[in-house]
Prior knowledge:
This protein is of the alpha/beta class. Helices cover 27% and strands 25% of the residues. It has 2 domains: 26-212, Alanine racemase (TIM Barrel); 238-365, Lyase, Ornithine Decarboxylase, Chain A, domain 1 (Beta Barrel). The chain contains 12 helices and 19 strands. The protein has an 8-stranded parallel β-barrel with strand order 2-3-4-5-6-7-8-9, surrounded by 6 helices. It is elongated, with a radius of gyration of 23 Å.
Amino acid sequence: MPRPIQATIHTDALRANLHTLRAASGDAKVWAVVKANAYGHGIERVFDALRGADGFAMLDLEEAQRVRALGWRGPILLLEGVFEQRDLELCSRLNLWHTVHCDEQIDMLAAHKTNEPHRVFLKMNSGMNRLGFKPAQYRSAWSRLNALPQVDEISLVTHFSDADGAIGIDAQVAAFVQATQDLPGERSLSNSAATLRHTNTHPVLKASDWVRPGIAMYGSAPDYPSHTATGWQLEPAMTLAAKVIGVQQLQAGDTVGYGSSFTAPGPMRIGTVACGYADGYPRICPTGTPVLIDGVRGRTLGRVSMDMLAVDLTDLPDAGWGSTVTLWGRAANGAVLSIDEVAAQAGTLGYELMCALAQRVPVVVA
C-alpha cells in the first residue's frame, strides 16, 4: 500500500472563504489569487471552487494558460506583468490583463504590434519598495501609457506593506489618493489583510473596484496572531494528515530522535508518524508543536526527520498504530488545527507551509 500520508484540498472551504471575502469587500470585484500554483493547493484542484470569483490573478504565463485551458473566459491578471517582449504576444492571444510597474514594460508595449489594445494595471510604489512607480513619477507613467495605441483601459493599483500590523495603511492610502487624483480607471488596493481589516474604516478601500485576496482564500489569517482564521470566519482549505506507523515505550532518561533533543521525564508512550521535512513539514518545528491525534490535540517530540516525526501518546490510551495524525487542517471529527499555529512554531507563516507541500505527498480533492 502507499505510504500513509495525504493532503486533502477542501473545496467547501474554498467556496466559504470566497463568500466571506466577497462579503468583506463591499461592492468590489474579487480576484482569486492563484499564484504559486494556488499557494500549493493546485490550480486545477481549486478552479471549480473559485470560479465564482470575478477574475484570476497570478504571476506566470504558464499558470495563466492553465486557467484558460480549464475553460475560464473571464479576466486574468498577471500581477508582475511581462518579463520580455514576446510575453505580450501571449497576452494578446489569451486576452490577459497585465501589470505595468516599470519604464521597461512601457517600452515593450510601445514596440508591440497588436490589433487588440491591452488592459493594463499601472502599479504605484506607495511604500512597499518592491515594484512600481513612485508617486512623483506615477502620472508621467500614466501619460506615457495613455498615449499608446497598444493600450486600452488603464487601471490603478498599489500594494500595502503593513496592512496586517500596527503601522497600518494610512500613509500609503494617502500617497495613492494624492497621486491618482482625477485619473480615470478602476482602482485595486487591498490584499487579504486590507480587505478584512480596513475596508470598513477607509472610504478609499470601500470604494475600490477590485480586491486581491490571496492567503485568506486558503483559510489562513493574514494577520495571525492578532486574529485567527476562525476569528475571520475562514476555513482551512488544506489538510495534511499521516498515520502512526510505530509505537515506542519510553522510560525516564530515554531520548527521542536525532540529536536526542527530547528526554523523557518519566514513562511515556510515543508514536512515530509517516511525515517529515521531505513532505513539507518544517524541520525546525520544536517539541510541543501542536498536532491532532485522532482529532484530539497533542504535541510533537524531538526533531523532525526527513520521513518521520514523533508524537506524544502518553495521555491518549486509545491512540496507537494506525491512528491518524493531522499536522494541520481539519480532522475527521471536525476539530481544526490552524496552519498558522504550526507555522508560528517554525518561525514562519502559513504561506510557506502551503507552498512547501512536497510533490511526493498524494493529494485528494474533497
